[in-house]
Amino acid sequence: MVSPPVLERGHQECADCPIRHRAVCARCDTNELDQLEQIKYYRSYQAGQTVVWSGDRMDFVASVVTGIASLTQTMEDGRRQMVGLLLPSDFVGRPGRETAPYDVTATTDLMVCCFRKKPFEALMATTPHIAQRLLEMTLDELDAAREWMLLLGRKTAREKIASLLAILARRNANLHLKAAKGAINFDLPLTREEMADYLGLTLETVSRQMSSLRKDGVIQLEGKRHIIVPDFDLLLEVAGDDSDGGMLM
User: Fold this and answer.
1) Could you tell me which CATH number the domain at 6-129 has?
2) Degrees to nearest 5, angle at CA 91 with 87 and 102
3) Angle at the Cα of 145 (from 189 to 128), degrees rounded to 5?
4) More confident residue, 149 or 131
5) In the chain, ranges of CATH 1.10.10.10 domains
6) Radius of gyration of the chain from Cα atoms?
7) How many CB atoms sit inside 10 A of residue 5's CB?
8) What SS3 string covers 118-148?
9) Coil, strand or helix: which one is 207?
10) What number does CATH give the domain 155-239?
């Protein structure tokens, strides 16, 4: 039996939030942050727990604070496909939409900062900073989805693996206010099986390509999850991307 999410009232100030500079509240001033404080609460999920099922009514929207969640769509015959990842600072839910379009599942232990939906929608109407930032995030997500179509349709297995690692490396660097260049290290939040599902590859192919990238010096592995990228530009080259990393979310 899956445990219910842990519900916590705001246990940290918005100004001290680790995703403050990237989240939907990034442009808010002190008064706007105070208004958000009045409608927020936190939920924590264990790895494997469902945040929301596709088609369920959502009474909240949220920002991922820590951890990773996956977006999954299920076909009529029961086949499932991971269609996206939610990383720290990413937004969960859509104002104005009553139900969830995808299953959202905690891939790792997850904490989200939730906002009651109706008050958040009302706040958007009177707070241009929130609406503007959400629009920017939505357009970034659209760009990433278009680039992901290219990755899945045209890139080789090696390029797919390198591209996913580059996405995670850059997002980790940005979250810590560091430039994505030179040597970068991060913890891989996905298992090999989850990487295979997300990239449309077999488990054997993922394992083989990860070993090949390690052998060629593109990455180094410490344990099962810690990744060291000695040269980020080399990783981008292997991924088939330019230094701008246009596909990166």
Assistant:
1) 2.60.120.10
2) 90
3) 95
4) 131
5) 155-239
6) 18
7) 19
8) HHHHHHHHHCHHHHHHHHHHHHHHHHHHHHH
9) helix
10) 1.10.10.10
Q: Tokens for 249?
A: 């979310």
Token digits for 175?
Answer: 């979250």
Backbone angles phi, psi at 152, to 5 degrees: -70, -30
Instruction: List the structure tokens of 169.
Output: 């490396």
**CA dist 150 → 143, 146, 202 (Å):** 11, 7, 19
Per the confidence metrics, is the pTM higher than 0.90?
Answer: no
Asked if residue 249 has pLDDT above 90, the reply is: no
For the cut 70, the answer to whether the pLDDT of residue 89 exceeds it is yes
Residue 61 pLDDT > 90:
yes
One-letter amino acid of 224: K
Q: Determine how many CB atoms are found less than 10 A away from the CB of residue 193.
A: 11
pLDDT tens by residue, 154-205 = 889 999 999 999 988 888 887 776 777 788 999 888 889 989 988 889 999 9
Q: Is 64 helix (H, G, I), strand (E, B) or coil?
A: strand
| Residue range(s) occupied by CATH 2.60.120.10 in the chain | 6-129
pLDDT given at position 69? 94
Where helices occur in 189-247 by DSSP H, the ranges are 192-199, 203-215, 232-239
Distance CA 151, CA 163 (A): 8
Instruction: Write down how long the chain is.
Output: 249
In sequence order, what are the residues at sequence separation of 6 or more whose Cβ sits closer than 8 angstroms to the Cβ of residue 14?
20, 25, 28, 33, 36, 37, 40
